[in-house]
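Case study.
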Amino acid sequence: MDGERWQQIQNVFHSAADLPRSDQRVFVESACDGDEELRSEVLAMLEQDVNGQSLLDHGLAEVAHKAISSTAPLPFKEFGRYRVVRLLGEGGMGVVYLAEREDLATEVAIKILRDAWLSPARRERFASEQRTLAQLNHPYIARLYDAATLDDGTPYFVMEYVEGIPLTEFCRAHNCTLRQRLELFRLVCEAVQHAHSHAVIHRDLKPSNILVKSDGSVRLLDFGIAKQVESLDLPVDQTMTGLRLMTPAYAAPEQIRGDQVGIHTDVYSLGVILYELLTGELPFELSNLTPSEVATMITEREPGRPSAKVQKDLTADAGVKALSISKTAWADLDVLCLTAMHKDSQRRYSSAEALIRDLDHYLNAEPLDAHADTVGYWLGKFVSRNRRAVLGGSAMSVALIALVIFFTVRLARERDYANRQTAIATAINQFLSDDLLGRGNPFQSGKAAETLLDAINQASPSIDRKFMHEPQVAARLHLTIAQALDSRSNFPEARHEYERAHSLFLQTGGALSPDAIMVQLQHASMEARSFQSGGIPAAKSLVAEQESLLKKIKQPRPDLAVWLFTAKGMIALVESDAKSANEYFNNASDAAAMLPDFDEIAKFTLRQRLAFTYIRLGDGATAERLARQLIAAYSASSGPDSPYVLRVRLNLAQAFMIEKKFAESVREASAIYPDFLAKFGPDHQLTMQLLTTRAQSEGSIGLYDDSVRDDLAIYEISVKKQGPLAFYSIATLSDASVGQCRANHFLEGESNARKAHESAIKAFGPQSGLAGGTALPLASCLIGLGRLREGSGYLHDINLKAVTQLSGDPDFGAGITLAQAEIAARQRDYTRAQQLLDSVRSIFSRPDAEAYQKHKLDELSDMVASGRQSP
Amino acid sequence: MSVEDSFRDLLPAAQRDDRVARQALDQLFSVTYEELRRLAAAVKCQDPSSTLSPTALVNEAWLRLVKSPGFVVESPLHFKRIAARAMRQLLIEAARRRNASKRGGAGEAIFVTFDESLDSAATGEGDLLALDSALSELSRVEPRQAAIVESRFFGGLEIREISCLLGISEATILRDWRSAKAWLGNRVRQAG
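After joint prediction, the assembly is written out as follows.
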C-alpha cells in the first residue's frame, strides 16, 4: 500500500461511511469502478466501522490483562541445590519462594525477578538489591547466601529465610514493656546504621520489613528499593523508583515530594516506627484519603506529640496503655520521636547513630542530645550561610554579618540575664540555670544538651504554678523566657511570654507599672525586628500606647527612656531609616550611660546595635571605632582578656573585613587567636568564626597558603564535631579548594573540591545549593588542569536557583559564566568567550567585586583579544 | 530494533544517544510495566470501583517520572506521547514472548499460562502482534494517522490533547481515527 492508494481507500470509505447502511454497498461499487481490491477493502472497513469487535474496540485494559497478567512465572522445582517448597509472596518486581537445601536441610528464601526481559533498569535494580545484601554483613540483616541466573537469564538470589513476625505485631502480641520496645527498636537502628555505614539507604523501612524471631532477635528485610548512596551517576533511579513501591505511612516528606533521599530518609521512617511502638498508632491517619491528601498530610501536617496521642486516644490498645509512661519520660520520648520525624530533614537526627545515642541517653536517664533545634545549631547554620554570602562580596552580606554580630551579643545577654536574676531570688537563679538556660545555652559548655525550645516548653507552664504567690517573680521569669525566645527568633512563642509577663506586672503594679511599660517596649522592639507581616504596625501601636502612659507619669523610671529609644530605633532600622535609627540608638546608648544601675551587658548590647546602624549606614569606619571603644571600655572594666572583649575583637576583625581592610583583619584575628584557643577551645563556635574570618580575609589578599591552612583546620574540627557531611564541613573544604586552585595547586585543589562536591551531593542531593556551590570550585580546578570538558559538565549541572537561594549571592551565576568563558577561551572559541565575558563585565567591574574575579575577567579579556588577532 | 531506535522519532536529536536519556527511557519501561500490571490486575479482579484507565495510567507514569533529569520532554503531552509508545512496545514484547513460549521458544521452561484453558485466541497476543504490524505499515504510509492511533489507544490521550500535540483539528483527528481503526480492525481480523 502506498500513500496514494491509502488516500483513495479513505476517500471512498469516508464518502460511504455516513450514508445509510443500505446505500453503502451501491455507492462503493460505483466509486471503485471495477477496482476489486479497493472494493473489498472498503467494504470490509465499513463492516468494521459498524460491527467491529477488534481489540481497538476493547480498550487497553483488556489487552493488558490478556497480554500480561496471565503470564506468571512457574519456576523450576529446583534452583541449583535448592528445592522450592512454596510461594512466600509477590512484590512489584519479584516473587519469593520458600525453598530447602536438601543436603543441609536448611530453609532459605529465593527471590526471582519476574519478567527480567523487560528492561535493563529492572535487572539493574534487582542486581543492586543483591549487591546491597552481599555487602551487608550484620546479625540483624537478612543474609544473602547465593545468587545465580536461570537458563533463560532470569536472575534469582538465595537469602536467609526469616521466620518471624513484624516488629509492631510482636510487641503487641508479647505485651512488651517500654524498655523492651525501645531495646528492640535500638537493634533495628543498629542494623540501619550498619547499612548506612556501607552507604546503603533502605528507603522502605516499616514494621513488615522488620521481623522479630521467636528468640527475640530482629532481622531487617527487603532492600528491594534500597539505594547506594554512592551510585550517583544514576540520577534517574533515585528519585523515581517510585512511590508505588513504598509505603506512604512510613515515607519521609522528601520521598513523597520526589526529592533527594538520604540517610535522613531512613531516620524519618525510624521515627514513625518509634511513634507506632510508643502509641500503637501511626502519626497520621491515612486510610480513606486520596493520594494527594496523603501527600499533603505527610509533607505539611505536623504530627501530634506521641504523648498527646496516647492521652487523647481512649481506644489506644491495652498494650500501649499498660506502658504507663510517666510524664517526664514522655517529655524525652516526644523529643526523640519528633526529632527523628522532623519535616525538615536537616533538623532530624543526623544519623541512625545519633538516634541510638539519644535512645541510650534516655535508657540511661541522661539528658538528650537532640540538638537539631538548639541555639548553637541555629547560629552555626546562620554563620555558614553568611560566610558564603561574604565570599560573594554582595551588599547583602554586610547586613548579614552585622546580624551575626548582633545575634552573638544577644546570646551573651541571655546568659547574663540569667546571672543577673540572682538578685531577685535564689529560686529564680536555680530555675533559670537548671530548668532553662542551663540546658539551652551554648555559651556555658559549648554543647547544648537539649533544645532551648523544649526546655522552655517544659518550664513555662510550671512557672505560674511554682511562683503562684510571687507574681512579680513569675513575671520576671516570663520576661526572661520571652527574651530568650526573642533572641532565637521564636517570635510567636516570645510574644506569648511577653504578654504573660505584661499581664502579671499589671496585676502587681497597676496600669502604670514601669515594669509593664518596659515589657511592652521590649515587646515592641521584637515586633519590629520580627520581619513578620503586621510587625511594624504592632510595634508602632505598642510604642504609641506606652508613650501615652509615660506622659501620665510625673517622673518615669529613667531606664524606660532607654527602652523607648531602643524600640523606636528598631522600628526605624527595619523601615530602612538608618539615619533615625542611628540617632535613636545614640540616644538610648547615652541615656543608658547615665544610669549606673543599668545592666552593663544591656548597655553593651545597645552600643553593639549602634555599631550595627553604622554598618547599615555604610559607615564601616564608625562601626570599627565603636568596636574599638567597646574593647577599650571592657578591657578596663573586666580585663583585656575577658571573653566579652575577645568577642568584640572578633567583631572588630569582621568589621575590618567588611571595610576591605583585609590585612588588618588578618592581623587582628591572628592576635586574638591564641586567646580564643585558650578561652573557648579550638572547637568553639566563636573560634571557628574567627578562623573563618581570617581565612576569608587571607584569601581576599591572595594569601592562599594561609587561607587554605585555616580552612583545612576549620574543616578538621567541623568534621570532628559534625561529621564530614555537615554543611559547615563541606563548605569549608570547598573554600580550601578554592584557595588551593587559586594558588595553582590544582591537583590538591581538585581532590578537595571533588571530595566537597561529592559530599554535598551525598548529604544534600545533586540539585542542592551546596552541590552547586561546590561544583564551581571543582570546575575551576579542572579548568586549571586543562580538563575542560569535565569542568564544563560540572558547570552545566549546577542548579543556579538553589545556589542563589542558599548563598544569597545574586552574582553566583556570573561566576559560572566567567568559568564558561575561560573554557571557551582555552578552546579558542573566542567569539563565545567574548560574548560570555561581555555579559558579566558590568558585574565584575563594580567597585565591590572580588579582586580575583576582576583580575580573571581582565586576564581572559586579554587572552580573547590576542587570540582574535592571531589567525 | 533497540529500545532507543523505536523512540528515535520522538526524542529530541540531542537525546538520542544520551546515556542518561537511555536510562530514563529504561526507567519509563519499568514504571510503565508496573502500571500495566496494575491495570491488568484491576481487570482481573473486576473491581468496579477501579478508576484505572490508560489515561490514569499514563498520568501516573508522568507523575513518577516528571522529575527525572534524563527526560527533556517539551511538555506533559509530549511525555504522554512517549509513554504511549512505551505501552505499545511493552505489550508487543509481552505478546511476542508468550507467543514464542507457546511455540516452544526459549521461555517455555519458565513461562506457561496459569489457566490452561486460555488458548491463543482468548489471550489475543496474535491480535496484538497483528495490530502492531498493521500499525507499522500505516505508519509508513501515513505517520500522522499511526501517531493518532498509538496516542489514543496505547496512551489514552484525549482527542483534544492529540490535537494540541499534532497541530491538527479535532475534526480531522476523528476522521483519521475512524478510517484507521476500520482499516486496522480489518487487518487484525484477517490475520486472526
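Observations recorded in class. Confidence is low (pLDDT under 50) at residues 47-52, 104-122 of chain B. Chain B has one domain: 3-191. We will return to this complex in the next lecture.
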